[in-house]
């Protein structure tokens, strides 16, 4: 994936997702509330950059990535999850290799989504400020759109990936 242009959002996402508890928290929101993990991470990244995103802007971002996410990312994820949980493939000699390959393809497809989000962000005029708590505000904006409760103060999503540098 070295041929992709520099994207600080992607770099942030890789570091943040690797933090303890973040991956599972993201997957829980995805599975329980149909959250888009890229949008969860986008909200966190914007907040860590001092940017608040309004509900209308978040809807625009969601619509912007929707075609690729619906037609590419989600089908790949669905196939990977099916293979990983299919009992009739458990005895086959190739599932782990196939699952690993699908995970790699899914990650590349996710990177396309994040590049699109970063490009979308780069064309907008967001106001940066030093206000604390913007990650939580941004996540709560997204959670309101999803119809789920607010992010808890101890959520691993609120830990800054910059803390791990």
Task: Describe this protein with a few key phrases.
165 residues, mainly alpha, globular, 6 helices
Can you offer a commentary on this structure?
Helix 1 packs across helix 3 and helix 4 packs antiparallel against helix 5. With 165 residues, this protein is mostly helical. The protein is built from 6 helices and no strands. The chain starts with 7 loop residues before the first helix and ends in a 19-residue tail after the last helix.
Secondary-structure map:
Layout: H1 8-17, H2 22-33, H3 37-48, H4 55-85, H5 95-123, H6 134-146
Helix pairs in contact: 1-3, 3-6, 4-5
State the gist of this model.
The protein is mainly alpha-helical.
Mean pLDDT across the residues is: 87
Helical/strand content category:
mainly alpha
Please give the count of helices.
Answer: 6
Largest sheet: none
Radius of gyration: 16 Å
Query: What is the straight-line distance between the termini?
Result: 22 Å
Tell me, briefly, the overall form. Answer: globular
How many β-strand runs? 0
Element-by-element helix/strand order: HHHHHH
